[in-house]
């Protein structure tokens, strides 16, 4: 997936947790083999060329495509499963894979799990008694600085995903034009229970721009967001303050 994944796991029976962690890491490698658009022999690449049908692919492919179709529907097409006219589900895969890995380890008995996939984070449980997970949000205009710190206090699961230009430049596409999104934003950070959706919503809102993106994010239940414009203006959803700390 072209990025680094890291795990922070607390509690549980050590051998069971280690076994689950090995399974989770193997699963991430398998996801890369199946979904990589950079591998000519991946199932997604072969599917895009018409060499396979969805039914002939790993069942994970149908699951991811269904999630992407739902994201397209809920964003009115601002999120897309296609890039330059070609099937490309990578906008779904990273968040889905990181969330899936976190849940697998938690199911093995860990009391707290944090999985960071290239800066997008899924946390479950807690790192200790009376201690919530806290996730820093990088400041896109001040390298090395933080724009905010999100707290998972009071909730059993939380995800934080950011889309923007700070790390990878203009890589987010406007589905209407097929070209790089022309927007007044430099980053959108979405806070939600599940990383698969937080990741999709951050991408879609970035392509929309600050005004439309913020209004749309406000309409989504259980979702909060922080948007930063190129002019260093910070905009956020009404309930974000309750998640900061």
Notable characteristics:
single chain, 245 residues, two-stranded antiparallel ribbon, alpha+beta, 13 strands
Can you offer a commentary on this structure?
The protein has 245 residues and is α+β, with helices and mostly antiparallel strands. The protein is 35% helix and 25% strand. It has six helices and 13 strands. It has helices spanning 14-35, 43-48, 59-74, 90-107, 195-208, 210-218, and strands at 5-10, 82-83, 86-87, 112-117, 120-125, 134-138, 146-151, 157-164, 173-174, 179-180, 185-192, 224-229, 234-236. The strands form four sheets. A seven-stranded antiparallel beta sheet has the order 1-4-5-8-11-12-13. It has a two-stranded antiparallel ribbon with strand order 2-3. Helix 1 packs antiparallel against helix 4 (90-107) and helix 5 packs antiparallel against helix 6. The radius of gyration is 18 Å and the shape is globular. The two termini are 31 Å apart.
């Amino acid at each position: 997936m072209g990025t680094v994944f890291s795990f922070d796991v607390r509690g549980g029976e050590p051998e069971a947790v280690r076994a689950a962690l090995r399974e989770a890491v193997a699963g991430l490698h398998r996801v890369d083999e199946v979904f990589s658009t950079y591998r000519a022999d991946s199932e997604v690449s072969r599917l895009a060329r018409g060499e396979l049908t969805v039914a002939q692919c790993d069942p994970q492919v149908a699951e991811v495509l269904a999630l992407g179709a739902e994201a397209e529907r809920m964003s009115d097409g601002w999120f897309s499963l296609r890039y330059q006219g070609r099937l490309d589900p990578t906008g779904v895969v990273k968040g889905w894979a990181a969330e899936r890995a976190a849940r697998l380890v938690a199911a093995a008995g860990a009391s707290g799990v944090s999985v960071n996939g290239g800066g997008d984070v899924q946390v479950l449980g807690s790192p200790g008694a009376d201690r919530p997970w806290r996730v820093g949000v990088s400041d896109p205009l001040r390298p090395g600085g933080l724009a905010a710190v999100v707290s998972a206090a009071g909730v059993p699961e939380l995800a934080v995903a950011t889309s923007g230009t700070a790390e990878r430049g203009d890589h987010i596409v406007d589905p209407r034009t097929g070209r790089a999104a022309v927007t007044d934003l430099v980053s959108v950070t979405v806070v939600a229970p599940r990383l698969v959706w937080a990741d999709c919503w951050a991408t879609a809102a970035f392509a929309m721009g600050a005004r439309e993106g913020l209004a749309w994010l406000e309409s989504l239940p259980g979702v909060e967001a922080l948007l930063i414009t190129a002019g260093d203006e910070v905009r956020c959803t009404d309930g974000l303050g309750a998640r900061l700390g």
